[in-house]
Amino acid sequence: MISYVIQNAKYYKDMDDVNSGIQATIDGISCSVPLDPANTHYAEILKQVADGTITIADAD
Amino acid sequence: MALSKVNPNFVGETAIGRRNLAINGDMRIAQRGATTTAIGQSANYFSLDRVKLFNSGGAGATYTVSQETDAPTGFTKSYKIQTTTADTSLPAASYTILRLATTEAQDLLRLGWGTSSAKSLTFSFWVKSNKTGDQTILAVTHANMQQHVKQKFTINSANTWEKKEITFVGNTGTAMEDGSAMGFGIDIFLAAGSNYQGGTTSLGVWGTRAATDKAADTLNIANSTSDYFQITGVQLEVGDTATDFEHRSYGEELAACKRYYQVVSASPTFGVDNIRARMSLSFPVEMRGTPSVSQSAVVVLANPGVGNVTQSGVSFSIAGTSTNRGGTYQLANLSGMTESKIYHFGQSSGAALLQFDAEL
Lengths: 60, 360
Known about the structure:
The complex is a heterodimer.
Chain A: E1 6-13, E2 19-26, E3 29-34, H1 40-50
Antiparallel strand pairs in A: 1-2, 2-3
Chain B: E1 35-39, E2 42-45, E3 52-56, E4 62-68, E5 78-85, E6 95-104, E7 121-129, E8 133-141, E9 147-155, E10 162-168, E11 182-192, E12 207-208, E13 228-238, H1 250-258, E14 261-264, E15 267-271, E16 277-282, E17 292-295, E18 300-302, E19 309-310, E20 316-323, E21 326-331, E22 342-345, E23 354-357
Antiparallel strand pairs in B: 1-4, 2-3, 3-6, 4-5, 5-13, 6-11, 7-10, 7-13, 8-9, 8-11, 9-12, 14-23, 15-16, 15-22, 16-21, 17-23, 18-19, 18-22, 20-21
């Protein structure tokens, strides 16, 4: 029932072209979120994706 | 030596220290700044460390959170939430929650929850509000447990500091799993729609978090722009007795807070190309997990030899490697950088901060 407002989620790649994180606006703040399930923001992004609330755009 | 031989003068709070499981209970640490205004629908830590505010579930009130010097005797700071836009007809799903004393599961395993000898927790605090009456307060387990136990406290006099002490019985039914995930927190529903006010769960009985009576009693501070709620002296301790507040040094509390959130205000960076700069950082305190990163304002990178470079907009991200100990990070939205040149972040960047968040 409690959630962050997450917008504009998009993967970004590291220098080896591997997805290394998600850039997203979380509660109005632009954040770089690591792909670590222990990270609260990443866990919430995964939850909202599973719920169909948001999608994560592919990296450029 | 017999206990009777111990000089009572040495059996003070120092001798029985490390009782307080809550961090920043005296509200002195505010790494995010002393005041945050216009807090609408959100769920975050505003201004003061280790106090999370949820304002969610649909249109509701708007708040300001601030660190105040108004505090009861023995304290110098308090946390204040002030209603700035009221909502006298809250949507059913709307709620405003203060979440306090959030604790990692691994720090609570000694309670022996899930066994017949499960230990109680006692939560004490000083509170002040213009509102009087009963207020529900919940001890909530997270991670694998997902339960809560309800109690209530009463504010007897308006605009007066009062101390409250509440004991939550141990949970004999479910064991907490080890780990750094959030294991426990105290929730106070300061305002809530009807979805949270219809249940009949008894006080002091552990039950599912899905219960609808989380706010059976609420001060409802969303009702007027005169409404506020202030708190300090937050202490969570093992057992069924509230003891005097355990004062720890500012440095200790700050270091403890940095496990969950920290900022960097200065660092050397180097030009990757003409639009990006990178830096490698080692956190002074190992964080709870790999942090999310953000920046508070655009930065100016300084190099007296080739000139300063100003960001056109905030852009701070993880550059490949980041752990709870540090990593390599990148500033972008730059122009005119010289590759491989060293630039100073912090020398000319005003109040811009790089923010690292591994909060519960």
